[in-house]
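Re: that chain you flagged

S.,

Sorry for the slow reply, it's been a week of failed gels. I finally had a moment to sit down with the sequence you sent. For the record, here it is as I used it:
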Amino acid sequence: MIDFRYHVVSLISVFLALAVGIALGAGPLKETIGDTLTGQVQQLRSEKDDLRTQLDGANGDLADATTYIDATAGRMLPGSLPGRRVAVVLLGDVPAKQHGAIDDRLGQAGATVSAEVTLGASWTDPGQRSYRQALVSQMLPHLQIAPDAAASAEEQLATALVEGLVQSDPADPDKLSDDAHDVLDILSSKSAGTPLIAVKKEVAAPADAVVVIAVPTEASTGQTQASPAPSTETVAAQLAVVVAAQRYSTGAVLADGPRGSDSLTDAVLSDDTLSDTVTTVSSTDEVPGQVSVPLALAARIAAVNGHYGFGSDETPLPPPAELQPINRVPSSDQGVTVPPTSKPTPTHGSKG
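Prediction finished late last night. Pasting the structure tokens below so you have them in one place:
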């Protein structure tokens, strides 16, 4: 059994060791320890300065590349979407700077933004499922093409939304149909206090094509944090909008944020059927992605599917596509000629 003398000896040993350490530190080892610490601090300071210089250089190169791409867009984009009307669907709280820049690029390509709608939280809120189902039954009589009877409520809602954006008046191809107006009114109604969409301004003309802009799930440049990762149900509902946009318009593009495990682009690329039919552009929070959106949409209208960006399974630049202006003139048979709302099975481009 350990007695009191053992503890006394242990304490004396500790104090002796401390005394020796202090004596050495203040005496013969003082200069050695001080020189070592000073050298380490100077080395760390030098490494920090080198890293700062490298970062400044990389930022300068990035700024130069962005300036170059921005200038090049002035030659690449004009005429790539001649006379097209494009509806923009925001899948949630997309940064205004991002979707505003995409709108500008569409205009630079010769397109007109015919509508801008934002999906509200009620679009995917599990507690609003019964409410959404009730709205579906109200909208079905107003749809030109009824959704599949086996489709989920979210898929039916997506069909209704896209038809509400692209359905033209039988007597005037430049005017949105009354049924389409009714659909948009039902989706944006505040009568129950839970509108499913917010419409920026009244939609007057039907769209030819659709750009769906996703909410970035990875932190973008200038953001302090990323948006919360969406649930599986939310991802399915958002992808349903992208699929309907492609199915019921002449072409659609998913304009996504940075790549990440929770991004819609990754969800598309992980599904063979979606990756073969849905066109994606990632990192549209940055200038290269924003410039690619009109080019990717033009390629998709020309029946070339692809995935564009700098991540895995993506190509940096969409292929060139020459589209002719749409001729919306009266037809001797049906009174008008309107752009098709569906298209045959496309010839797919490379996925990467």
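What I noticed first: The chain has two domains: 4-60, 82-308.

Talk soon,
D.
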